[in-house]
Write a structure and sequence with these properties.
The protein is α+β, with helices and mostly antiparallel strands and about 400 residues long. The chain has a domain at about 5-255. It has 16 helices and eleven strands. It has helices spanning about 5-15, 35-70, 85-90, 90-95, 110-125, 155-165, 190-195, 200-215, 235-245, 250, 255-265, 290-295, 300-310, 315-330, 350-360, 375-385, and strands at about 15-20, 20, 75-80, 100-105, 125-135, 140-145, 165-170, 185, 230-235, 275-280, 285. It has a nine-stranded mixed β-sheet with strand order 8-7-5-6-9-4-3-10-11, sandwiched between helices. Strands 1-2 form a two-stranded antiparallel ribbon. The longest helix is centred in the first third of the chain and has 35 residues, at about 35-70. The protein is globular.
Amino acid sequence: MENNDKRKKFIESFAVEVNNIAREKFLKETRPTTIGEVVDGYREFVLDLGKGFLEIAENYNDCIQIAKQNELIGDAKLKARIKDFSSSRINSDIKILDDVFGMEIVTSTEVEKEILMLFNHLVFDISKDKKYNKPSGYIAYHCMGDFSPKEGNIKNWIKKEVAELNTREYVRKRSEPTYNDKKHMVPIFPNLQEVIKDSNRLNEIAKTFEEMLEYMKTTKTNLDLPIVEFQFKTADVEECALRGSASHTKYKHTKEKMIENKFKNGELIRGINSPWKFEGTPSGLKLQDFYKTLLENWPFLRNTIVERRNAGKEIKDREKVSKFDMLTASQFPFLRGYLPNYKYDESKQEEKWGVLKMSMIVNRLDRAETESLEDELLSQIGNVWADNFASKEKSGGESK
């Protein structure tokens, strides 16, 4: 949340230099924070807010299932993401870590997209919202939200919100328009404005929203709940963003050769420089397959992944991922329900954190050095957990 002390502390810990560019607006102390202190800040931030985030994501996924069962929407899917340390650090100057915890909601149609966007406004206090309508074909709605369910007559609320809410529209690729100019403001729900003119459809939406809202109200508010980033898009736009003209790797100017080398060397690691991603299913969230996560982040790895599978190297990749998954979950207990094949105890926690911390430091994507410490780190992992863990050496995860 905006006033969350842990979030503020973490933001302040990013008083560092990245690529020799000082993040002066984050400097709260007389000296820059060391990279080790930044990693510690990331740990505390995610440890305090991760459980609350997954509580929200699980309940939100169930609400999507309710909307499907009531035939309010057709096919729709949810993905939840916890941003890795490397990406969080690189983006700290622009996004101020608001997007460490995020969800992507993908629907079949624009109307269904707007229905779930509207539900978002019912459940969250929305800020920093923006529509994208880029020449690349990226058409989506992004927003940030604090969990804050509304009260009152839902039908009246729907009519008011749909009629009155406008937002900024980002239409250019390289430069932001001046958003205080009204010509850059557009309705958030243009399709729903027509839909709810039908009183039967309005009643259907309101009735289902009531059921979904009551379910979201079961969220455990005694947990620290983070600001959540949301992205709403249709399946066509999702495909365009993954592999088409709006690909993430194109607008981020990704260093493809560097990423490919890191993958071949086993240096792309979930939670360190690749995000934790979860997929919504009718029975809850499921940890996304690691190869699928890699392909969503870096589609150009497809041929390399095929080559490694054909060469029999997939087992080695998954064994390494499995070890780091186990190590990360030892430090972040809220992940353990998604890795049911491991057993944990609480001994040697500082030693385990020391190994994970070093992995985060040496595997940053902004780190110029190419020397790999993976063999040494994996050896240390074996030393610190010894008989304290039992693993089936199986990567991936299952729903809680």
